[in-house]
Amino acid sequence: MQTAKHFFSLEGIDGSGKSTQIDKLIEVLTSEGYSVVKLREPGGAKISEGIRELLLDPAFKGIMGDKTELLLYNAARAQVIHEVIQPALDAGKIVIADRFAWSTFAYQGYARGLGAELVQRLTEITCGGCFPELTVVLDLTVEASRARTARRGEAPDRLESEKADFFERVRQGYLAAARDYSDCVAVVNSDREPDKVFADLYKLIKSRL
Question: Which of 34, 37, 113, 194 could form a disulfide with 29 if both were Cys (CB 3.0 to 4.6 A apart)?
Fold first, then answer.
């Protein structure tokens, strides 16, 4: 897959600390003089946020088909690339995404069983050359993930309400991506103090700037 310079994404199962680490990373990079665009996936553009609502609505649990889910994620991604990511990269900015295409590999390709080949074909159509040059997976066990998310006290969305074995497959999908695509996917153990996680994350990102 063709990657885009200065485009980064963070991945991981729920509770892995992506939001905390992204906010810290943007704070530090901004203080160093970089212009940074942050987005979440699915979302980041008005159309993409509308698709996000459909994807995560608990009312559609057990109704939405796996291929429907796959296509909706790619539709949301295509729009945010068109509207936000590519223009930002063209303007010389850094883009940092909270999830991107490797989520689809892990969730739909691996955990849903749709397969890497189908996901890759769609990813090539959706992303073209706009694919993160580096994705950092914040790795966490499913047990630790569930303990962290339970402390939030929030009602789970459609995906968050999946069973533990589903998230174990997601985690294994991420680890498989890191093994097979080590040139653009790295793993950081997130079951540690946030400052230690950040130190490893920052080192990885700065090595590409």
Answer: 34
